[in-house]
């Protein structure tokens, strides 16, 4: 089916309406682009230090766990989970990684790890209340939270390396899984569960750090989360505005595609006039061909 045939499927009244509003397309396009850019720039901006809740001053709470090893099945794979300590933490999320979020980030799927769905890099204490996190660039890989100073060595000196942690979050239940999907960079969160080792019957997948003072490989906490709560979320309005702009551009393109170059109503009137002219010409030719009579 040709493009013109597709356009002709649109009823004439709808085409007329699209033609009438087509003058606004360029203004709506500029508006949508503005919304998209503003939303993209503002989305994920970190809150200021004065927005930190008092709970972020608490140190992570870790105590010995008297819990037996247990199993959990996800995506047809049965995992063993061995709790070592109970664990609670209040923190500001500065970076996040979701397993299998792209074709370049699929190690969890290749390893058959469907229990660790999310990694959360968080800061607390002086790192949160001093605002030093605003001078640090954080990013998450598949297993690691990376951070670098935006302001040189003095920033590193002010940053407390013992009040930042990368947490491999194991889903304790579907409610936890849902909240972890909703967590955004800039949110202040609380979670509790167990520092744990886990794996399958054939191999151990990962252990856990049990202290906040270690660094390097093995320094991440593996947390079997039984409860996760967003206690203070960043505004979601910017993400909504960004997607409103994106979808607005898509809709405008579709409307533009189906908008006729000229008014269908006027075209119909022009066609009618042309038909009338043809009828008139036919009558004139008929009269001219008739023999003239005089009385």
Automatic annotation (TrEMBL):
Alphabetized UniProt keyword annotations: Membrane, Transmembrane, Transmembrane helix
Transmembrane segments: 24-42, 240-258
Biased composition (Basic and acidic residues): 282-295
Region annotation Disordered: where it falls in the sequence: 264-295
Biased composition (Acidic residues): 269-281
Keyword Membrane recorded: yes
Name of this protein: Uncharacterized protein
Lineage, broadest ranks: Bacteria, Pseudomonadati, Pseudomonadota, Betaproteobacteria, Burkholderiales
